[in-house]
Write a structure and sequence with these properties.
alpha+beta, Jelly Rolls, globular
Length: 473
């Protein structure tokens, strides 16, 4: 397998969109995630280990992993449909049908590498156009970091016509603001300027307004549409550009989360990215990977100039909204080309995931169709694509990667079992122990941080094949 074909399963639309989104939002872990997303598949391309011979445990884990990764991509499509004003299910169906068709098309494997390279190229077009109009990413970063406050611009879609929320969320207001409701429903406000805090529920029709005071919290359901005031601070955004560019959370307290992200992505890459053939053509894979990750980071830096892009919680918002904001009407074609890049990435990722499922679980088309159907059912619900993706990648790292690192068939079975049980227990920690200490947050967000090393130790502890067997004859 060529390096370009090998990384196709790694360059998921959900991963690329999540990187851009988290940079835009100023998330403290964004640099570590970007580094891990770039380095992990490169390590996997060169790694040597036990061939992934299927066993019942790894076959089951492979099927669940592929289903969760597909669900994350379908959730991304659902959020894109929400941004365009269409029902969620339309985006899910439009993503699921090609995933089945492309994987079952015999010629898809030959066309996939070229399609992935084209997708990476298309992903760089809009940032390049914005760079010509607004300056380099470094200039954009400095400009964003110098803002005294992150506020709604007068031309923002949230101010002009209102926008929809991709998922249920709670908005926290740092200053007073009048919010117009454009979707009828019940809105819950927590007033924290009194002791004890007062909870009020308002049943509003389209066009009515809520007056929020500093410190108030507004609960918004998925699909609700609101309009905000220009010049007011974006709810939930950092206090200023300085706080966005130099988050306090990037200190030593960030190390457990950074380690969790690195372990999760590295472990998942070991099983999703197979070892590739060496040669001159091998450079194509790393180059396309570098282009895609660099493109996502550049998108995030430029999109940070409009902090309200991440308000709805929709991962594709920076990718789909930035061209029009930065370039005006001439940016619309670039937004469509970016959408095309995400579609091509989904197609190439589907082909690669189908190949991995064939090697590690079953070659039956029914198994792949079943994974797509379950992923479609999950994507109908307004779940967080990033959380679903990290669960899928984390499960692969904890309960699939130990099989590749094992020295025996027994280790390839025992390691995934122990790692998988540990992963499920840690992932369920917030529900089982809601009062757990804050330092356990890294394990709850990235359960593979502990589950993968445990699974690896068990896999390596088993005696190698042929040892401990009594001689016969």
């Amino acid at each position: 397998m060529t390096a370009l074909a090998a990384i196709a399963a790694w360059l998921q639309p959900a991963l690329v969109a999540a990187l851009a989104f988290r940079v835009t939002a100023g998330e403290a872990d964004a640099p570590w995630l970007a580094l891990a997303a770039l380095v992990a598949p490169l390590v996997a391309l060169l790694a040597r280990g036990r061939p992934l011979a299927p066993n019942p445990v790894t076959a089951t884990v492979a099927a669940v992993t592929v289903t969760l990764v597909l669900a994350a991509d379908f959730l991304l499509a659902a959020e894109a449909a929400t941004l365009l004003g269409a029902p969620r299910w339309q985006g899910v169906v439009l993503a699921a049908l090609p995933a089945v068709i492309v994987a079952a098309w015999p010629a898809a494997g030959r066309l996939s590498p070229g399609a992935l390279a084209a997708a990476a190229g298309l992903l760089l077009l809009a940032p390049a156009a914005v760079a010509l109009a607004a300056g380099s990413p470094l200039t954009a970063w400095q400009r964003s970091g110098m803002r005294s406050a992150l506020t709604f611009a007068s031309e923002s879609a949230w101010v002009v016509a209102g926008e929809r929320f991709a998922r249920a969320t709670t908005l926290r207001f740092a200053e007073g603001q009048r919010v117009v409701v454009l979707t009828a429903g019940v809105y819950r406000v927590v007033e924290r300027d009194v002791a004890p805090p007062t909870v009020r529920e308002w049943r509003l029709t389209a066009g009515e307004a809520l007056t929020l005071r500093p410190g108030d919290e507004l609960s918004v359901e998925a699909g609700a549409r609101l309009r905000f005031e220009a010049g007011r601070r974006v709810p939930g955004a950092p206090a200023s550009g300085i706080a966005w560019a130099d988050a306090v959370a990037r200190g030593p307290r960030m190390l457990p989360l950074a380690a969790g992200a690195v372990v999760t992505l590295l472990g998942a890459a070991l099983v999703l990215v197979p070892t590739a053939r060496r040669g001159r053509a091998a450079a194509a894979g790393p180059l396309v990977l570098l282009a895609a990750v660099s493109g996502a980071l550049t998108w995030g830096v430029y999109a940070a100039g409009a902090p309200d892009l991440v308000l709805a919680g929709a991962l594709p918002a920076p990718l789909l909204r930035l061209p029009a904001l930065a370039l005006g009407p001439s940016g619309a074609p670039l937004a469509w080309l970016t959408g095309l890049a995400l579609v091509l990435m989904l197609a190439t990722a589907s082909v690669a995931l189908h190949q991995r499922l064939t090697v590690c679980a079953s070659a039956a088309l029914e198994v792949w169709v079943g994974a797509v159907v379950v992923a479609t059912a999950l994507a109908v619900w307004p779940l967080d694509p990033w959380r679903v993706l990290t669960l899928g990648l984390g499960l692969a790292a904890a309960a699939w990667a130990p099989a590749r690192l094992a020295t025996s068939a027994a280790g390839a079975l025992a390691g995934p079992i122990v790692g998988g049980v540990a992963f499920v227990a840690l992932a369920a920690l917030p529900a089982l122990a809601p009062g757990a200490p804050a330092w356990l947050d890294a394990l709850a967000r990235y359960p593979a941080l502990m589950a993968m090393p445990v699974g690896w130790l068990v896999a390596r502890a088993m005696p190698p094949d042929g040892e401990g067997v009594a001689p016969t004859g």
